[in-house]
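Entry 12.
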Amino acid sequence: PYFVDMNQNLFLQASLHSSDQNLTVFVDTCVASPNSSDFRTLVYELTKSGCSGDPTYALFPSPRSDVARFGFNAFSFVNRFPSVFLRCELVVCRYQDFSSRCYQGCVSRFKRNADS
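Predicted 3D structure (tokens):
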């Protein structure tokens, strides 16, 4: 556990450990829950499909392509729950493959089939 005060800035870093140095990492979706084993019932979306869902969520510059840095202000789930748990989904892509998901940024809508 990591203890923080309410509204304190919380900074996180995700690092990719691989012998392939031609990879990059992208934070796609991060959700918070008061229950470490249930990220569906009561969740708060910090970011979804690369789009910020929280006004305090921010991506930060990284020294290397295999490191993603982000942060947000600490919060709680209406005082009924003593802890907040995070689950983040990251995407790994080829470095400078601009057609990959890592370089698309925020994807606010999904494409649908146009069946007759």
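Annotation: The chain is about 0% helix and 40% strand. The chain has a mean pLDDT of 90.
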